[in-house]
From TrEMBL:
It catalyses: Hydrolysis of terminal non-reducing alpha-L-arabinofuranoside residues in alpha-L-arabinosides. One of its GO terms (molecular function) is alpha-L-arabinofuranosidase activity. Keywords: Carbohydrate metabolism, Glycosidase, Hydrolase. Its EC number is 3.2.1.55. This is non-reducing end alpha-L-arabinofuranosidase. Belongs to the glycosyl hydrolase 51 family. Pathway: Glycan metabolism.
């Protein structure tokens, strides 16, 4: 089988916002306690944070981490997590039915994120709290000094303001499972007023309004339109969340789910632009895909977890090879929308539906999905190009005309590098990619990284890394064109410079 592609320097979608390679850490399961934070672990620093975990996060070059939730944030009193640790309350955490010890809070997390090389995308509680708690948190984090909350931060040992730029106005407020679930109009109003005063405290911040919890929500589309009707002039982004799973064990259909993600993104762009038109606004709303991943392996096991324990092993999906391929397709899909998707967070980062897992008192290890995420984050910086692709197609249970080749390319003008990301969705055959790279004269193949495996259900573990990339791909140049054999069911990164 054969696919063709034309790459041209001037076919540009947009400059990629590096924040699309963001991730997420929630006070949930073993993400914080037993994940990034494990005092007593041989690799823990003096504050209790695991340096081996931070090391893996640095390998991923994660630019932005959303915190502290997720569903957790809708019942969180941020004040519980600051000040002397010994006076912080233990709380019943209603979103995940655990006990939150509040040993790690805003300041510890901000310090840790700095070490991990990431900015923080801070969420405020618009479930049980509201405008007052939100504006106070902005004052606590971002105001220099001379006011109650900024001086409180200083008294807690943090002289310099954290200067958090990106803020989420609550989380999944359309979901009946959410603490303080709201109608679109109720949420739109509170988000608008919270946004207004948060920006009065710090005009430099950027705000994300909650979109739908996923594309199947009955209120989807109407929700976005109503929320943006209220918040349009006060926010920069509307959020999208989506998780997928191979529930019917149908890989052809599973790998096509990124087409649904593509449609979801286009729909939200249309809704945002409809409100733009309605308001005769000059402003464009961008998208924050601030929760995305595969999530389904652990759903049954989670039902057996003892309630009100501290940091139980929740949402610990163990990813297999096919999950890595879908994650690759999802990353390519977001790059194709680099003109509108400016923030995205792989949900989540450590232990909870995560690319990085930890063993208690033992090693940290890489899940299969670590690799496509790392490759995109490390090599996918620059300008998203718009390749012209012709690929064989197939039909699956829910999709028609699924391209066998899912691909895109990124041009890094500064480093004079061109990177092609490609997934071959074919179950049986390799796909010969012929790529016309016309005005990239003098470029040579640096490497052709391939993630492939004979067993689509293969997983990694603390002991063995059975799914890991190799660099024996056969990409080569002939007469100004690039040729590469993409093995059946494979993730490929072809780097030229
Ligand atoms: O990421 C796990 C959960 O998924 C988040 O807490 C919530 O926002 C979403 O439903």
């Amino acid at each position: 089988k054969k696919a063709k592609m034309i790459l041209e320097k001037d076919f540009k979608i947009a400059e990629i916002d590096n924040r699309i390679y963001g991730s997420f850490i929630e006070h949930l399961g073993r993400a914080v306690y037993g994940g990034i934070y494990e005092p007593g672990h041989p690799d823990a620093d003096e504050k209790g944070f695991r340096k081996d975990v931070t090391g893996l996060i640095k390998e991923l070059q994660v630019p932005l981490i959303r915190y502290p939730g997720g569903n957790f944030v809708s019942g969180y009193n941020w004040e519980d997590g600051v000040g002397p640790v010994e006076s912080r309350p233990r709380r019943l955490e209603l979103a995940w039915r655990t006990t939150e010890p509040n040993v790690v809070g805003t300041n510890e997390f901000m310090e840790w994120a700095k070490q991990a090389g990431a900015e923080v995308n801070m969420a405020v509680n618009l479930g049980t709290r509201g405008i007052d708690a939100a504006r106070n948190l902005v004052e606590y984090c971002n105001h220099d000094s001379g006011s109650y909350y900024s001086d409180l931060r200083i008294s807690h040992g943090y002289r310099e303001p954290h200067k958090i730029k990106t803020w989420c106005l609550g989380n999944e407020m359309d979901g009946p499972w959410q603490i303080g679930h709201k109608t679109a109009a109720e949420y739109g109003r509170i988000a608008q007023e919270a946004a207004k005063v948060m920006k009065w405290v710090d005009p430099d911040i950027e705000l994300v309004a909650c979109g739908s919890s996923n594309r199947s929500m009955p209120t989807f589309a109407e929700w976005e339109a109503t929320v943006l009707d209220h918040t349009y002039d006060h926010v920069e982004y509307i959020s999208l969340h989506q998780y997928y799973g191979n529930h019917s064990n149908d890989i052809s259909n599973y790998l096509a789910l990124s087409l649904e993600m593509d449609d979801f993104i286009s729909s939200v762009v249309s809704i945002a632009d409809y409100i733009k038109a309605k308001k005769r606004s000059k402003k464009k709303i961008h998208l924050s895909f601030d929760e995305w991943n595969v999530w389904y392996h652990s759903r049954e096991a989670d039902k057996l977890i003892e309630p009100w324990t501290v940091a139980p092993p929740q949402l610990e999906d163990i990813y297999n090879f096919e999950d890595a391929l879908l994650v690759g397709c999802m990353l390519i899909t977001m790059l194709k929308h680099a003109d509108r998707v400016k923030i995205a967070c792989l949900a989540q980062l450590v232990n909870v539906i995560a690319p990085i897992m930890t063993e208690e008192n033992g090693p940290a290890w890489k899940q299969t999905i670590f690799y496509p995420y790392m490759h995109a984050s490390v090599y996918g910086r620059g300008v998203a190009l718009n390749p012209i692709i012709s690929s064989p197609k197939y039909d699956s249970k829910d999709f028609t005309d699924v391209p066998t080749l899912e691909s895109t390319a990124v041009y890094n003008e500064e480093n004079e590098e061109l990177t092609i990301f490609a997934v071959n969705r074919d179950l049986q055959d390799g796909l010969l990619l012929e790529c016309d790279i016309r005005n990239f004269e003098g470029y040579k193949v640096v490497e052709h990284i391939v993630l492939e495996n004979d067993d689509i259900k293969q997983t990694n573990s603390a002991k063995t890394e059975a799914v890991k990339p190799h660099t024996n791909g056969d990409a080569s140049l002939r007469d100004g064109a690039l040729y590469a054999m993409l093995p059946k069911l494979s993730w490929n990164v072809i780097r030229l410079a």
